[in-house]
Structures are given as structure tokens and as C-alpha cells.
Automatic annotation (TrEMBL):
EC number of the protein: 2.4.1.-
GO cellular component: cytoplasm; membrane
Source taxon at top rank: Eukaryota
Native species: Spodoptera exigua (Beet armyworm)
Protein name: Glycosyltransferase family 92 protein
Alphabetical keyword list: Glycosyltransferase, Membrane, Transferase, Transmembrane, Transmembrane helix
Subcellular location: Membrane
Membrane topology, as annotated: Single-pass membrane protein
Length: 456
């Protein structure tokens, strides 16, 4: 199979693969399991390695070290168009070992069966989970790489470096979080940017606000973006505030014909991969994760931060289980529609800061919600709430009175009807007023530095 052009992400994998090959210096030809050469690897797209099956494919994106629970685990983010998913095995490659340790992979379905899945011929998200506890008498160390095969002694066409693994450290009998975890408060995940038009002012506004609210880092995935957006992202990357990851979708090679509405519904599954990648890259770095879009903002009480808001919400929560952490804080959605604005409190190009007339009533329960999720317990992410937790998910629905409110800024009503409540049943909500002047000056400053069009 012809390999795709070299990309930064693929170059990184090649470097890691070469390093791992050099590390595994005592490979024996007598073993039935051979560490793959670079020429053995199959790529379906720039970011995706491939395992071909008789009736479909498995696409591999990334592997991650997960020490949060009783046993150390390796999690692998994959998509597959085969249903049911066949039995798969992890070949775990350890430092200075001559052959891998093979473990049966347990798939966690990254969607809901109640949402019409899995479907044969459609790429479905899974998180493959493999224990990586060493078999005696081997020392307890973390693996450096993992391959996925269809049999315990199968040849492999893929190898992934294991992100976050403590390669140089021995692992305790119970790998608790306390000795390794760096609980910086909050990471924000933006599923992807795919904008050919210039929305640089909106991106600067969004980033400056969440910086004031106390975000420690922002992970942004990009598909195709306007050159001015690249200038903005580089500015914040250089500050250490934004982490940018180039991204492409796993190919849908099935010949299954779908209507546009069905295709769009299946496309929702693709949004989950960057969110779960963001989760597993940060389980050791941040206590809370927020996945929101550029047209959304969870606004804390005036002059407060997200961290203080979360502390207040947790202090007022009793979930009936003293030793069980709260897995998510769920906020109801309030639309802020362009056509509902009676007046503007700032430049029209800064929609979040200038639009203050929101819907009086929130969206129906279960619709458009967003959550702060606890990274110590979540296994599978969704845009709105966690899908899978270590134990049954424990969530708190934030009361309409707050503290905090999710505002969703839209050009027009999301309903098909000519009229909708969000256009006429509105109230003035100027909670953002306490940040407005400061953030507007910051936006002007950033736009000037980057030689972008001014606000006015």
C-alpha cells in the first residue's frame, strides 16, 4: 500500500517507531511475534494506521497510558466499519524485551446503542482497552508501544507509541493517581476547526474569555482553516495557552449508500475522536475537562472563575455516595439569537460580548447541554455528557439559577418554524459585562499585533 505524504504527525510516529526498534534490541527470530518494520505499517490516511479484516477495516488513531484504576491499562482510539467487532489482541512492547506480551483487548463502544448503532459498513468509534500488568517474574514497567492483531500470534501492520507512559519508572502494585497526577484545574477541548472563512476575531474573543475564566490550556484540532486563523493559533501556541493538533478523518471505504440525513447523523460519531484524544492526553494533567464549541460559553458568576464556580457547586452537592467522585457538572443550554437582540453592548464583530438578550427558558432537558467532566473517572467522552464512566456516571445538573450559565450564540433559530421562543421570549443577561471592557481592549491588542482587521 502506498504511504501518504509525510506529515508532522506521521513523522512523529516514524521517529517513535525507529526509537522503539532500537530499544527492543534483543528481538529473537524464534518468536512468532515480530516487531513491525516501518515498511510493514499500513496507513489509511495521514493520521490513521490500518488493520484490514475480511469484511472491513479497523483504523487506529492513538494509544494512551491509563493508570487511574486498579490495574494499569492501555487505551487505543479506533474506528471500525465491522459489526460486531471481532476479537482483537494487544501486543505490548516493553523496553529491552525480546518479544511482546499479548493481552485480549476489551472494546468499549464510544456511542450509544440506543442511538442506532453499531451499524455494519459505517465507521463506529471504539476504545480498545488492554491490561498491561507484567507477567511474573518481569519487573513492573510501562510498555513503550502497542500493536493490535487478530490472533495471539498474529503479524502486525500497525504500531502506536503509548502516550503519557512513564517509561523510566517502575509501577507500584496499585498505580494510584496521587503520585503521578498534576491537577492543574481545567483544560478546554475544541473538537475541530473547519473554517474556510476568516473568523479570527471570534476566535480571539473566545480564547481571551476562557483565559479570564481560568482555563489552563486549550486543545484545538484543525482540519482546514483560513490563513488568518493559523496566525491567531500560532500566537496562542507561542504563549503556551493553546495546543494545536492537525487532524483528518478516518476514510469511509464502505460502499453503503446513505441518504444525506443518515450520513450527517453518522458523521456525529466522528466528533468523538478528538474529544477522547483530548481526554486521554490530559488525564494526568488536569482535574476537569470542558468540551465546548466556538459559539458556546459557560459564563461563571461576575468576576469569578470556573474553578471557584466548580468548588461552589461541588460543596452544595450530595450524590449519596461518600467515596464516589462527581463525574460531571451539566449545564442547560440557553440560546442567544442574533435576531433577538434589542441592542448591542459592544462591536458587532464580538458576538459573545455584545449580545446580551438570551432565551428566557433553557432548551429541553438532554438538548444542547455541556458539561465539566472529571478526568479521574471518565472513560468515553461525548459532546454533551460523559458516555462511559468507571462506575455508573454520577452527574449534577446545575440549577437554572446557577452559579454559571451556558450561553449558545446562534445566527438564527435552530427550529424549522418561522417563529420560535428564543426570538421573542428573551431577557437581558449582562453577566459578561464585568469582563467586557478588559477583554475588548485585549482583542484590539491581539488583532493589532497580528495585523488583522480591527474591530471597528
Amino acid at each position: 500500500m502506498r504511504l501518504p505524504p509525510i506529515s508532522p504527525r506521521r513523522s512523529f510516529y516514524i521517529i517513535v517507531t525507529a526509537f522503539t526498534i532500537l530499544t527492543l534490541t534483543w528481538y529473537k527470530d524464534s518468536s512468532c511475534m515480530k516487531f513491525p518494520e516501518i515498511s510493514d505499517l499500513e496507513y489509511a490516511a495521514t493520521s490513521w494506521q490500518l488493520l484490514s479484516l475480511e469484511n472491513g477495516s479497523v483504523y487506529f488513531y492513538g494509544a494512551y497510558w491509563d493508570p487511574r484504576f486498579e490495574e494499569p491499562l492501555v487505551r487505543i482510539l479506533v474506528y471500525s466499519d465491522v459489526s460486531p467487532l471481532p476479537k482483537l489482541y494487544c501486543q505490548l512492547w516493553f523496553p529491552n524485551d525480546n518479544e511482546p506480551q499479548t493481552e485480549l483487548a476489551t472494546p468499549v463502544y464510544g456511542w450509544q446503542t440506543a442511538w442506532y448503532g453499531p451499524v455494519m459498513g459505517v465507521n463506529e468509534p471504539y476504545i480498545l482497552t488492554c491490561t498491561c500488568r507484567r507477567h511474573p517474574p518481569e519487573k513492573e514497567v510501562a510498555p513503550v508501544a502497542v500493536s493490535v492483531v487478530t490472533g495471539p500470534c498474529g503479524e502486525t501492520s500497525n504500531v502506536l507509541n503509548i502516550q503519557n507512559a512513564p517509561f523510566s519508572k517502575h509501577i507500584n502494585k496499585r498505580t494510584g493517581m496521587s503520585s503521578h497526577r498534576n491537577d492543574s484545574p481545567i483544560v478546554v477541548c475544541l473538537k475541530w476547526l473547519h473554517y474556510r472563512n476568516d473568523i479570527s476575531t471570534s476566535l480571539v474573543e473566545w480564547l481571551q474569555l476562557i483565559k479570564h475564566f481560568g482555563a489552563d490550556e486549550v486543545y484545538i484540532y484543525i482540519l482546514r482553516i483560513h490563513p488568518n486563523l493559523r496566525k491567531v493559533l500560532k500566537y496562542y501556541v507561542d504563549q503556551g495557552f493553546v495546543v494545536v493538533t492537525g487532524f483528518d478523518h478516518a476514510p469511509q471505504v464502505s460502499g453503503l449508500k446513505q441518504s444525506r440525513s443518515t450520513r450527517d447523523f453518522h458523521d456525529l460519531r466522528r466528533e468523538l475522536l478528538p474529544l477522547n484524544d483530548c481526554l486521554y492526553r490530559n488525564i494526568m494533567q488536569h482535574a476537569w475537562l470542558l468540551a465546548i464549541d466556538l459559539d458556546e460559553m459557560i459564563v461563571p458568576p461576575a468576576n469569578k472563575t470556573w474553578s471557584s464556580m466548580i468548588e461552589r457547586l461541588i460543596a452544595n452537592t450530595t450524590n449519596g455516595q461518600e467515596n464516589k467522585p462527581l463525574d460531571a457538572l451539566v449545564f442547560q443550554n440557553y440560546f442567544v439569537i442574533d435576531g433577538a437582540q434589542v441592542d448591542l453592548e459592544g462591536p458587532a464583530k464580538t458576538r459573545i460580548l455584545s449580545h446580551t438578550w438570551r432565551a428566557d427558558a433553557p432548551s429541553p432537558p438532554g438538548s444542547m447541554e455541556k458539561s465539566f467532566v472529571n478526568t479521574s473517572s471518565i472513560i468515553a467522552m461525548h459532546n454533551h455528557q460523559p458516555l462511559v464512566c468507571h462506575e455508573p456516571c454520577s452527574v449534577k445538573y446545575v440549577d437554572a439559577a446557577g452559579p454559571g450559565r451556558l450561553l449558545h450564540f446562534r445566527e438564527k433559530c435552530s427550529y424549522n418554524e418561522k417563529d420560535c421562543p428564543e426570538l421573542h421570549d428573551v431577557v437581558k443577561d449582562d453577566t459578561l459585562g464585568s469582563w467586557r471592557q478588559t477583554v475588548l481592549e485585549e482583542i484590539k491588542h491581539v488583532l493589532q499585533i497580528l495585523d488583522l482587521d480591527p474591530l471597528e
